[in-house]
Amino acid sequence: MKKSVLILGNNPAADMVVKQLNEKQQYNVTQIKQGDFTDHATYFNLDPEISIIVSFIGPQDVDLAIQELFDAVRGQQIKIEHFIMLSTAGIDNEVIGKLNYPGVKDVTEYLREQRYAIKIIDEAEIPYTVFRLVDLLVKKTGAGYTINEGKPVPAGNVSYETVAAFVVQAVTQNKFINQSVALLEDS
Known about the structure:
Blueprint: E1 3-8, H1 12-22, E2 27-32, E3 50-55, H2 62-75, E4 82-88, E5 95-96, H3 107-123, E6 128-133, E7 135-137, E8 144-148, E9 153-154, E10 157-159, H4 160-173, E11 179-185
Parallel strand pairs: 1-2, 1-3, 3-4, 4-6, 5-9, 6-11, 7-10
Antiparallel strand pairs: 8-11
Helix pairs in contact: 1-4, 2-3
C-alpha cells in the first residue's frame, strides 16, 4: 500500500523532495505550494490517508501555520505517522557566528515563532523530525552532515540538494525520528 505524503511550501528543496518521492512507487505525493498557510481553509479536505507531512513553510508566521495545520489534521481525524519540519539553526542560541535570515525583518520574533511551532509539534505527541538549517545555497559545496540538538552549530551553509536528500531519508528510511538536528555541508 502506498504511503500518502503531504509537502507544504514552495522552494527548490521542496520541489526536489516531491520529484524524488514521486520516482518511488510506494509514495503518493501531494504538494500545496501556495496559499495562506495561516488560514484553516488552506487545509480543508486534506487527503484522509496522509501519513507523512513535510513542512517547508516560512519564514514568517510558521507558528500560526503549524497551529492551523494541526487543528485541521485533528478536526479531520488524520493519523500522522511522521511530521517533518524545516526550521532554522539559532532557535536555542546554539550558533557560533552569524547566520543570514533572508526575508526576515525581526529576527527575535522569527526565532520565537520557530520555537513555538516546534513546541506545537512536540505537544502533538506524534513522531517528528526537525531539520534546523543554516544559510541556504543553490549550489552544493560539500558533503552534508548533521549536528545533534544541544551541540554548538557553526554558522555555515547547506544546499537545497542536501536538505532534500536528508528529508527524503527521513521519509523513506524513518531516520531522525523524534530528533532536532542541524544540517550543514563541508565547505
